[in-house]
């Protein structure tokens, strides 16, 4: 593999992770709308080439039937398969919520551990490209609230590769959230055996004054702000959760115990978002040590607007992060 | 008419179901068990004949009104009763309860409390069998009401396009909760919906053991041969309400009277007698079932409850911290 | 061994039931399946059948009162 490019795109990393999982374990199968090569290898081409390599028995294009897609994944997972179901866009997950919440998440528990559901649901979303109210929502908080589900979001191609592989090989149902606007951004290529364990956050940037706790697209934005503030002598630590649920409390609390200040950053609507839970946990454990209450940055309380002018105003931004940091550092 | 051994097999399963249902209703009525219970009296023969046509390794997905399906598939009575009572010795350590029975050893993979939701999951089991080429079939039970939910249409369509080895057994007891099918369902029969989705679909008198068994056997052979799914609409009736305590006030008296007159259990018993199976032999089957149930019921009452912190186990593959 | 008669749970939301009236007097010989008392809940009144054959011993004979599900109201010996 000495010929591998130094950089790859996010979408390519996901493709490589599925390819490796399929090569390593013949119980890995893919289900989803238009995912086989004959139909284009997925609308964002994330599964391109996989049906050619592994056949359409294992890489199946499905009808537009999200309940049936997730249900078929649940059923096959119950008897030893490791299905990867692609739900084209995260908003379409809402029509499969019964299968995800009432079945995938609960069957291990309700069966007293006799069965398990090692399935991965890959889905993509993200605002900022004018897709409007039903094609861009970040719904991770809905899923993080359900016991029995893991929720994962990668912030760069190498992590996407390592996290998606771990998700597929995990014995629990995992929702793997990809980000449409950053599908084609490049990052350093991972080594072929690069694996990122679920449940472990990373600290891509160390700092001493404030912890920016984030995931997915929030990581890039937080880095940019950290870079800007560094010139003023404000030192930001960036914590990339990578697994949103269950999140790595140990790493988060350790970071905030050091910096004594935190801002939680996510693209999803701020109200009742994952930031509320993370912020609460920090307050519960470290209240008396904090310089100021934990800050939160998220998008506005509205559906994702269509017009670029409104969408920009609605969406979380680097300016919001900077403002929040300045607020809590006084 | 099905042959003698088959009918005895069906009767043995159906009688276990009938006596279990009576015992459950009695114990709940006396306050000895405090659970929500969905009676199955009247639908025994549908399940007994269906499960007599499959093997223990074949899969079953059923619903909250599922006692008949679970017993017919072979879950040991003690394990099942203990789960209904919420005990640690139950099939699911008391964490599923009557609406969520799982017992992989007898192929019972999912019992769902959500109408229609078993259908897409049954497809997944069928898909696994198709990929494994293991020759198994999946039986997926649901009621007439389920044909009005989206999962039914998505699921049957997918099963048909992929030719999955799944038998969709619609136990049509005419009522979805408290409402008659004519007030909820645009088509006259459920079979018509199967036809519309392109599936091989049949409609049978599910209360007739021989007719039901023949339809079941044919569907199983069709699926095992790789031809794909079948929808069986099995006509039946329930005698004791949607759940115990429901007085069936919405069922006209004449309709209930007629249904009780057509009670499949005495009819099946008489068929055995007509085939020269002796009263003594039949009584022996009934006595054995009665003893099994007595033992299971007592076991369920005596068995200990799970410890409270059992809730932290089986949420994920690792124990959740306290 | 005596068979207990407790206020049953008959329905999703039933937490209490009203012992409307005993249909047979204390000490009666009753047969399994015979209706022995009337139970009222928020939705309806139902006659409850004896779970066994034997002599009825009424433990709570004040009728018209509400009792929680599971309350022991009598036995069959």
From TrEMBL, chain C:
UniProt keywords, alphabetically: Acyltransferase, Lipoyl, Transferase
Names of the cofactor(s): (R)-lipoate
PROSITE patterns, per the entry: BIOTINYL_LIPOYL, LIPOYL
Domain of life (superkingdom): Bacteria
Domain Lipoyl-binding: residue ranges: 2-77
InterPro entries attached to this UniProt entry: 2-oxoA_DH_lipoyl-BS, Biotin_lipoyl, Single_hybrid_motif
Single Gene Ontology MF annotation: acyltransferase activity
Protein name, as recorded: Dihydrolipoamide acyltransferase
Protein's organism: Parasphingorhabdus cellanae
């Amino acid at each position: 593999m000495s010929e591998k490019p130094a950089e790859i795109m996010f979408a390519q990393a996901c493709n490589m992770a599925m390819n490796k999982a399929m090569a390593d374990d013949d119980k890995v199968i893919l289900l989803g709308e238009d995912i086989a090569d004959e139909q284009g290898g997925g609308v964002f081409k994330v599964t391109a080439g996989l049906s050619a390599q592994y056949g359409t028995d294992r890489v199946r294009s499905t009808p537009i039937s999200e309940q049936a897609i997730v249900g078929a994944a649940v059923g096959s997972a119950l008897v030893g398969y490791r299905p990867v179901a692609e739900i084209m866009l995260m908003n379409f997950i809402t029509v499969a919520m019964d299968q995800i919440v009432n079945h995938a998440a609960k069957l291990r528990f309700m069966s007293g551990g006799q069965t398990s559901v090692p399935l991965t649901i890959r889905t993509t979303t993200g605002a900022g490209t004018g897709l409007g109210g039903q094609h861009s929502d970040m719904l991770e908080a809905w899923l993080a609230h359900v016991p029995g589900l893991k929720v994962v979001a990668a912030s760069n191609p190498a992590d996407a590769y390592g996290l998606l592989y771990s998700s597929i090989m995990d014995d629990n149902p995992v929702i793997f959230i990809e980000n449409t606007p950053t599908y084609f951004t490049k990052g350093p290529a991972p080594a072929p055996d690069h694996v990122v364990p679920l449940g472990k956050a990373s600290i891509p940037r160390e700092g001493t004054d404030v912890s920016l706790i984030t995931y997915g697209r929030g990581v890039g934005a937080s880095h940019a702000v950290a870079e800007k503030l560094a010139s003023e002598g404000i030192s930001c630590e960036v914590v990339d959760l990578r697994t949103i649920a269950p999140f790595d409390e140990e790493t988060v609390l350790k970071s905030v115990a050091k910096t004594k200040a935190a801002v939680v950053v996510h693209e999803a609507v701020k109200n009742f978002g994952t930031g509320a839970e993370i912020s609460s946990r920090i307050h519960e454990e470290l209240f008396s040590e904090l310089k100021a209450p934990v800050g939160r940055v998220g998008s506005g309380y509205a559906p994702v607007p269509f017009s670029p002018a409104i969408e920009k105003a609605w969406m979380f931004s680097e300016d919001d992060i900077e403002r929040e940091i300045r607020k809590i550092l006084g | 008419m099905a042959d003698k051994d088959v009918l005895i097999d069906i009767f043995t399963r159906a009688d276990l179901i009938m006596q279990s249902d009576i015992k459950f209703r009695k114990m709940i009525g006396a306050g000895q068990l405090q659970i929500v219970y969905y009676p199955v009296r009247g639908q025994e023969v549908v399940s007994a004949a269906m499960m007599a046509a499959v093997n223990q390794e074949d899969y079953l997905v059923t619903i909250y009104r599922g006692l008949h399906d679970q017993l017919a598939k072979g879950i040991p009575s003690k394990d099942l009763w203990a789960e209904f009572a919420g005990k640690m010795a139950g099939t699911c350590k008391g964490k599923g309860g009557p609406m969520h029975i799982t017992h992989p050893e007898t192929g019972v993979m999912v019992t769902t409390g959500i109408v229609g939701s078993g259908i897409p999951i049954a497809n997944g089991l069928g898909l696994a069998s198709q990929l494994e080429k293991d020759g198994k079939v999946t039986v997926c039970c649901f009621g007439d009401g389920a044909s009005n939910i989206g999962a039914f249409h998505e699921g049957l369509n997918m099963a048909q396009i992929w030719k999955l080895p799944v038998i969709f057994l619609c136990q049509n007891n005419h009522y979805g909760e408290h409402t008659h099918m004519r007030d909820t369902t645009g088509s006259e029969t459920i079979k018509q919906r199967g036809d519309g989705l392109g599936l091989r679909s049949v409609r049978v008198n599910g209360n007739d053991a021989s007719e039901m068994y023949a339809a079941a056997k044919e569907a199983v052979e069709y699926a095992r041969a790789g031809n794909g799914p079948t929808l069986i609409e099995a006509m039946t009736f329930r005698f004791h309400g949607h759940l115990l305590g429901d007085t069936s006030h919405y069922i006209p008296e004449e309709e209930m009277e007629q249904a009780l007159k057509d009670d499949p259990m005495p009819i099946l018993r008489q068929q055995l007698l007509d085939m020269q199976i002796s009263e003594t032999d039949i009584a022996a089957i009934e006595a054995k079932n009665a003893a099994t149930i007595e033992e299971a019921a007592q076991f369920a009452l005596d068995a200990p409850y799970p410890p409270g912190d059992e809730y932290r186990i089986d949420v994920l593959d690792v124990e959740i911290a306290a | 061994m005596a068979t207990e008669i407790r206020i049953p749970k008959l329905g999703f939301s039933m937490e209490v039931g009203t012992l409307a009236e005993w249909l047979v007097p204390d000490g009666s010989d009753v047969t399994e399946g015979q209706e022995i008392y009337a139970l009222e809940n928020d939705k309806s009144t139902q006659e409850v059948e004896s779970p066994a054959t034997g002599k009825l011993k009424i433990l709570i004979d004040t009728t018209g009162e509400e009792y929680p599900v599971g309350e022991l109201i009598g036995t069959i010996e």
